[in-house]
Amino acid sequence: MKITSKIYTALIFAFLFAPILVLLVFSFNEAKSLSVFSGFSLKWYKELFQDENTLEAVKNTLILACSATVISTVMGTAAAMGMHKLKNRFYKMAVDTVTNIPMINPDIITGISMMLVFVFVGRMFGAATSLNFWTMLIAHVTFCLPYVIFQVLPKLQQMDKSLTEAAMDLGCTPFRAFIKVTMPEILPGIITGAIMAFTLSLDDFVISYFTTGNDFQTLPIRIYGMTKKTVTPDMYALATIIFFVTLALLLLNNFVESGDDKRLAELKKQKKQKRSEQ
To answer: Cβ neighbours of residue 156 under 8 Å, at least 6 residues apart?
Structure first.
C-alpha cells in the first residue's frame, strides 16, 4: 500500500507540475518551438523587457494588485474586529454568510453583476465611460475582502481579551491599545490575508474582464487577447517570472504561519506550567 500511495502521489505531482516545468525550460529556448530545445538563451527575457505593451500591462496589474491589497487589508482587518465584537448570534451568522458570498459565488456571476451595477450607476450620473480603473479596483477589493477577514478573524478569536482591556485600564486609548497590543497579536493573520489578496488580484481574469475599460489593460487580459492570434515566447519568460514571484510569496506565507504556530505552542506550554505551579 505504501508503494502504491507513493506512485499515486508522484503521478499527481507530475500531472500538476509537468506543464509548469515545460514552460520554465522552454522560456530559455533559443527557438520558438515548444517541442525542440535548440539551445539555452535569454533571448525571450530580453524581448520581454523591450515589449512596451506587455510592460504597461504588468505595471497596470501591479498598481491594481497593490491598491486592492492595501484597501482590502485595512478594511478587512477593521471588519474582522467588528465581527469579533458582535454579541448577537443570529446577526453574527448573517454577517458571516454575507461575507462568504464573494468567495462561493462563481467569478462569472460576480463579474457580470458588478459590470451591470457600474454601467447603471455610470449612466445615472451621466458618465462618459462607466468602466475604468476605479471600477476594477472596487471589484478586486470586493472579492479580496473576505479572504482577509477570514485570515484575521481566527487570530482575534485566539487572542486573550484581557490584554486589550488591561492596556486601556492603564491609560491607553482604544486606537493606541490596538496599535500596541492587538495588532502585534493578529499581525500574522494580516500578513497572510494581504499575501492572499495580492495573489488573487494579480491572477484574476474573469472579474477583471467584465469590469475593465478600454483605457486600462491588465496582464491576464492582454494574454487572453494574444491567444486569439498567437502567444509569443516572451510570455513564457513572463510566466516563469510570475511563477517564482508567487512561489516566493507562498514560502513567505508558510514562514509566517509556522512562526505563529510556534508562538502559540509556546504560549500554551507557559499556561500549562503556570497551572501546574498553582
So the answer is: 80, 81, 84, 182, 186, 189
Half-sphere exposure of 70 (CA within 13 A, CB side): 6
The 3-class SS string of the chain reads: CHHHHHHHHHHHHHHHHHHHHHHHHHCCECCCCCCCCCCECCHHHHHHCCCHHHHHHHHHHHHHHHHHHHHHHHHHHHHHHHHHCCCCHHHHHHHHHHHHHHHHCCHHHHHHHHHHHHHHHHHHCCCCCCCCHHHHHHHHHHHHHHHHHHHHHHHHHHCCHHHHHHHHHCCCCHHHHHHHHHHHHHHHHHHHHHHHHHHHHHHCCHHHHHHCCCCCCCHHHHHHHHHCCCCCCHHHHHHHHHHHHHHHHHHHHHHHHHHHHHHHHHHHHHHHHHHHHC
What nine digits make up the cell of 199?
495573489
Q: Which three cell numbers stand for residue 272?
A: 500549562
Pair 128, 169: CB distance under 8 Å: no
Specify the pLDDT at position 268.
Answer: 63
Nearest CA among 11, 6, 186 for reference residue 83: 186
Bridge partners (DSSP) of residue 40 are: 29
pTM here is 0.81
Task: Render pLDDT for 194-218 as a digit per residue (tens, 0 to 9).
Answer: 989 998 998 888 999 999 887 788 8
Cα distance between residue 206 and residue 151, in whole Å: 24
Q: What is the Cα–Cα distance from 118 to 135, expressed in whole angstroms? A: 7
**In 10 A of CB 84, how many CB atoms?**
17
Give the whole-angstrom CA distance, residue 76 versus residue 196. 12
